[in-house]
Amino acid sequence: MADNTNQEHKALWGGRFEGHPERFTQEFGASLDVDKRIWEDDIVGSIAHSHMLAKQHVISEEDMEAIVAGLKRIAGSIERGEFVYDVDDEDIHMAIERALTEQIGEAGGRLHTGRSRNDQVATDMHHCARRMACSCARSLLEMRQTLIDVAEANFGVVMPGYTHLQKAQPVLLSHHLLAYYWMFSRDFKRFMDAYDAADELVLGSAALAGTTYPLDRTAVADELGFSRISENSLDAVSNRDYLLDLVYACAVTSMHLSRLCEEIVLWSSDEFGFIRLDDAYSTGSSIMPQKKNPDFAELVRGKTGRVYGDLVGLLTVMKSLPLAYDKDMQEDKEGVFDAVDTVCDCLRCTEGMVRTMHVCEDRMRAGAQGGFMAATDLADYLVGKGMPFRQAHEVVGELVLKCEKEGRTLQSLSAEELGRQAPEFGSDAPAAVDIDAIVARRNTAGGTGHEAVRKQLARARERQEDDRRSLDAIDAG
Amino acid sequence: MADNTNQEHKALWGGRFEGHPERFTQEFGASLDVDKRIWEDDIVGSIAHSHMLAKQHVISEEDMEAIVAGLKRIAGSIERGEFVYDVDDEDIHMAIERALTEQIGEAGGRLHTGRSRNDQVATDMHHCARRMACSCARSLLEMRQTLIDVAEANFGVVMPGYTHLQKAQPVLLSHHLLAYYWMFSRDFKRFMDAYDAADELVLGSAALAGTTYPLDRTAVADELGFSRISENSLDAVSNRDYLLDLVYACAVTSMHLSRLCEEIVLWSSDEFGFIRLDDAYSTGSSIMPQKKNPDFAELVRGKTGRVYGDLVGLLTVMKSLPLAYDKDMQEDKEGVFDAVDTVCDCLRCTEGMVRTMHVCEDRMRAGAQGGFMAATDLADYLVGKGMPFRQAHEVVGELVLKCEKEGRTLQSLSAEELGRQAPEFGSDAPAAVDIDAIVARRNTAGGTGHEAVRKQLARARERQEDDRRSLDAIDAG
Amino acid sequence: MADNTNQEHKALWGGRFEGHPERFTQEFGASLDVDKRIWEDDIVGSIAHSHMLAKQHVISEEDMEAIVAGLKRIAGSIERGEFVYDVDDEDIHMAIERALTEQIGEAGGRLHTGRSRNDQVATDMHHCARRMACSCARSLLEMRQTLIDVAEANFGVVMPGYTHLQKAQPVLLSHHLLAYYWMFSRDFKRFMDAYDAADELVLGSAALAGTTYPLDRTAVADELGFSRISENSLDAVSNRDYLLDLVYACAVTSMHLSRLCEEIVLWSSDEFGFIRLDDAYSTGSSIMPQKKNPDFAELVRGKTGRVYGDLVGLLTVMKSLPLAYDKDMQEDKEGVFDAVDTVCDCLRCTEGMVRTMHVCEDRMRAGAQGGFMAATDLADYLVGKGMPFRQAHEVVGELVLKCEKEGRTLQSLSAEELGRQAPEFGSDAPAAVDIDAIVARRNTAGGTGHEAVRKQLARARERQEDDRRSLDAIDAG
Amino acid sequence: MADNTNQEHKALWGGRFEGHPERFTQEFGASLDVDKRIWEDDIVGSIAHSHMLAKQHVISEEDMEAIVAGLKRIAGSIERGEFVYDVDDEDIHMAIERALTEQIGEAGGRLHTGRSRNDQVATDMHHCARRMACSCARSLLEMRQTLIDVAEANFGVVMPGYTHLQKAQPVLLSHHLLAYYWMFSRDFKRFMDAYDAADELVLGSAALAGTTYPLDRTAVADELGFSRISENSLDAVSNRDYLLDLVYACAVTSMHLSRLCEEIVLWSSDEFGFIRLDDAYSTGSSIMPQKKNPDFAELVRGKTGRVYGDLVGLLTVMKSLPLAYDKDMQEDKEGVFDAVDTVCDCLRCTEGMVRTMHVCEDRMRAGAQGGFMAATDLADYLVGKGMPFRQAHEVVGELVLKCEKEGRTLQSLSAEELGRQAPEFGSDAPAAVDIDAIVARRNTAGGTGHEAVRKQLARARERQEDDRRSLDAIDAG
């Protein structure tokens, strides 16, 4: 039995306990494997706390210096991978506190003055959440830059635009790629909002009710770079909104990635043939020698599932929890880390895929000739000649049906053939169905016309600079 | 067979079609029941579009005037409940267009110049989403006001503060209620962000590629009060982020409501007895004469499920959809409307519940005496006398165990009894466990001390004014 | 104020209440709009209950006869659409009870003897859930029959088989369609399991603790066709597992439908061109005359979202609810009805789409020639000549690369060209890459070979008969 | 650059590839960390496959013996933790294949004859899913046994029964605990159904289309203990229903656990005080010496979130995937393992909590006196004296209101006081409100009466035996 119990806890929780937790429950309750990764946030936070305690004369300068030196030694040893975790370390906070007390003795215990595990953990997670929001934002910037670069490098390439996966109207490939640019720009903003949600110091809330020590919370916020302090201690220790915001931002980004990767998979197919992925972003088959699979695009698309799951998980955890802290909330971390890591990896992978893919311009152009995509412009031509739109739509619809049955394109129809269908068709009618001309004509703001897309590119570059500057400012500190 | 097909569609879709949809598929594909509610957004949008078309000389002034007059007549008839929908009206847009053409003839068809159903529907939804975001924000303001009012009206009432649903430290009821104030304030911001996400004119994107007509998109944006125009037509017709942002804001608000309502249910129980709900917010049992059930709190808590479901639904719809518009996206509306309606109703119901509930101050105070909540302060007392915290924690833990076995409170211990446990306890020790004093001591920023809560209330009122002003500014247009 | 309160409730809930609910909360708490549809289950259940009460001498024969006659009259009036709901009818149960009492006076009240709203509603929902499970199962049988029919009608048609949406090996279209047959067969079983989960009489559990009346629960179960009675009253009134099972079955079916419809969308594209949907299952565009969109396939695919959402909704509602009945559970119905209706409609729509689609055999066969799908068999040929598989894989991979660069198919390589690559290639090598022969060779059980698929079809027909028989047996009662 | 690429893959995928994957993408695509745990399933499956290949004369007896011996050596080395993974081992299957080839040379390659990674992985997962379903079922049996044991040990203890968390009617604690017994019994059945769904051999489906080798699939099924073989190769390699069924069973079990743990948290509160958790299943606070928190119950409740998330994750992955295998499906494993591990751990933890908890019989009985729970029986008493139920309900409601205002219980009312309220109350009226008598009266099947619960316990024990026998039969093979 002795093997399965843990006398250490009695010491920590004091005289109220007569029994000991069993080994299994102790492991079940532990979170060290997961929260290990916030060690740096924990140490930085503890240093700021001890600085303030000394400044406020709650602890002595000597104690403070011993604490800070001890924490720095521990940080070094964790960084070098030399730190030895104890079997009884439930979480990273206990591990660090234990090591500190082993090193500097009683003074180590004074670090915990005026704070509790509840506000300490919450502070660490706010600190870490800001960092994670920035990582995601940085990855998004790179993805966006690549979309701009590839859009510029392929300016002028025409491809079919689709609705309902049916060919609709020809568009510039650059226009198509920039559609994703703006999606990822909205995602960037969502991560900046998540950063802002996390940017609040909760330390000083203690277990749930605040503390009796004369803490200077603003000083700690300043040292840790938080722009404001929390308003209510009960809320502060039980608030997980900032993590939800972060996971939600990940979920929407994943959704956007799933759309882009769906298209990469489609475009890599033999049927579309619009792109060839670089060998570095493809895999083969051990059985079928001809296979070159867009595995990574599929994997990114599939990983949407886990990120959606992470969001549902955290929403479920928080449902119906009474104030203030409940242990359920310990389940917040794993999903957040998973969502953030997944999205960063997926962005990196997709960025490389797009950067290195070979655009098969000829296949795109050939695709743009098919599918009768000039039909709208042909109808517009008739409208220009005075025919009501509904009638023009009907006339062109019949031309399409005829071409389809004969296996021809609209471009193959001569002026004479057109004239037989409707006398309004003149000798300039064939020009109306020229694919490049059709694209070039759509120059209202946001349209696919060459001029409009050039302006769009300029605005995208501008936005890129703005966003990069905001992020740099945060990173600078 | 004739009964089950629909020749009307052939007319609309033109010469390309030889067969007709069956009645069942037509109904399956229809969205009128759901999108009926955006009729006003549709009409306002169409008026702005026709104004601009005339200004740009795309249509004549006469046509424009006929269109606008016709649309206003239709608006009037819908408002008065007199509008007659046709069995073939697939959606509200077709219904209005059909009625317009019936009224003003050919000119009605010109309204559709330079736009498509894709950008028209998206415009209407952006317009409506802004309105919905404001409704939710307005309901939140009222909920928040009531929390402030009830917190002020009950200032000084002491209750147990909990962690793990175990009594932890006494707090002010006002502090507890204000915790929710700040949650709902964050929700307010989320709805303002959702408003901002929707605040973009997409009209002018046409089906997917922009249009050849010389549209003035900025003029339309100005008339409809949109602060910017969309940058990319492919993105514009297939973007549903702004709806996701709205549903996400609803989901987090629902989660907060579920927490508050969980507490209302707990507090209404015979065991807690902290509040008595007004009869107007309770229900009885047809079988058990004694029952007075907090049905509405439970219902609000339960409705969290549908809002979470709405979020999952829309995320699922959007996953892996290739550009640009796909019919899957028609499934966006019902969930959004449901989430918004649910949250507004739940806020209204909970606001009334909180405003009218009777606070049982005596039961709260009695509860605050129990559970040994003074233990922390008793330990702090010993630390003040020079005892290391760990040892103080141990000593007090043993006192708790002793009291628990004897069925006594810490407050019942005399100075002598305390002294027998540890010589550090002096004659002032009993004062350390006075519940009001314990609360009053926690005056660091955000703490539960009377002074700190008074400041918090002031900040809450200030925030209330700021947020009300922002919302009024939006509503004013 | 009088307008907003409801004095009726005081009467029902008796002397304990002094105030009245407001109109808004009353509407908020009402479920009539949703539970109207279980009126028939309610009436059948009440008739069985009153039969038993009379048999057990709890009520008189006369009362029973009056009750039964009254309920039948009410059923008739609901059926004919003549039943008038009262503004105070919270739910269908109250509406029927009120109407009954209006009709037959005091005896109507005796119907409620020995039962409570909690077990009454649960009984109705079990009864209705069985019916819904059967509807879904019936729709699945029809979908499956159509898959068999289309597989048989197109036996011998060869198409490319894909992994990673890359052409992998040629398969029979029949084999491909039958893959969905087996998915939907598993769904059928899931609905039969959901039926079984619902097939339990809970009446007699009363509010939560059972009742003091000498009820004969088995007699009621027999009359209502339930195969067993519930074992524990607390569980019985708060169990929603059988509804979860039903929604889960819907969710998996939706997922399968989303896969089939994804393929229908792909196959309808200009690039694949494998099928042409019937005009009855396509829609056009009011702008683009050439468009013929697979709208219905997209809509079915999109509706997966709402069904997933319904599942998440109900799981969320049930999380953390203490025993026994809590009002949260009233939120169970809408999601279940929505999931069941959606799945039945989607099955019907997809069944029609598949039944009427035109298979473009030539495009499928042409597609099967491309993509180097014979590569595996070519490598197997070399292995047959004694070459180790890894080396054969390498040799064929190089052939593929060469062909790809030269824009040729493997079938276009002459025996000489092959021989130059590897001396093991003999004059019979070209025969190894014949597409029909490749398909025909795969005749292990479950493979795509003609013989294997013929056997599979036979087993599918057999399973169809078995499942139809089971369902008929249930429907027969 | 050399550091970041991987030449190994070229060898495996053969001549078609000119470039190499980068290190990052290779790691991104790897699944070894996750699928390591199915090593045993992989080895057992490979042994069965090689036995069959030899029996069918596809490989020689010598090769088979070398393969089997090699695989067993590898199994031993993995079991002893001595197996060395290579940096290029993408997954466990590649790791084992590589090691085998290193050991026995060319014969190792022949193991892969007639199978592909797609059907190999699917076979391993089916094999493993059966095992996981049994583990969960076994854990459920233990949980259920403990519920029976605790119900028996505390037979006769009376507690309040709740609806809406309001005291409703008194019940036996045993009855309350057995409610969970039946929930977990339904879960058991769900895991048995998930077992059955997994119990199908898919090997022989090869990459997607079956194979040309004369495999004996039934022989492999027999050796691996699968009760049937899959019917369609395309379905077989892309079916993940059996994993969904498993995760769904986990999700419902988690929901049930969250309900039980919610009650454990409530009952452990100072306000309820119905149970005291064993010290081994409680934790303290490093700050508050009095705290004894039901951390483990909260943690179990919180872990519902991750299991729901796992279900949503897998449903999302599978949505809209075209046939046959797509790489997205690699994302199936982690969520399933997480759900299964979580549920097994949670069951173990909760089982221990329930087994060791101290029941505070006095607090339960005291609670049962409060809340006017005798009101229903008092009304029934009046009905027995001939008063219509609605009137009786009204009379008792007024008594409740009176008692509530005076702070009394119904049990404290004398016969005289009752008589003043209604003349029907006789001298036997006080007996009607005796708590034990109220419980004892509810003896219809499934009710809380002592006799009914005794029968229920007998049926629970019987079911326990049946289920244990079924599971033993499966485990026996």
Please tell me about this protein's structure.
4 copies of one chain form a homotetramer. Chain A is mainly alpha-helical. Helices cover 64% and strands 4% of the residues of chain A. Chain A has 21 helices and 4 strands. Chain A has helices spanning 8-13, 23-29, 32-35, 39-55, 61-79, 92-104, 106-110, 117-153, 173-198, 217-224, 233-238, 241-268, 295-318, 332-356, 361-369, 375-384, 389-406, 415-421, 429-432, 435-440, 450-476, and strands spanning 158-163, 166-172, 275-276, 358-359. In chain A, the strands form 2 sheets. Chain A has a two-stranded antiparallel ribbon with strand order 1-2. In chain A, helix 5 (61-79) packs across helix 6 (92-104), helix 8 (117-153) runs parallel beside helix 14 and helix 13 (295-318) runs antiparallel to helix 14 (332-356). The longest helix of chain A has 37 residues, at 117-153. The radius of gyration of chain A is 31 Å and the shape is elongated. Chain A starts with 7 loop residues before the first helix and ends with a helix. The relative contact order of chain A is 0.10. Mean pLDDT of chain A is 92; it is low at 1-7.
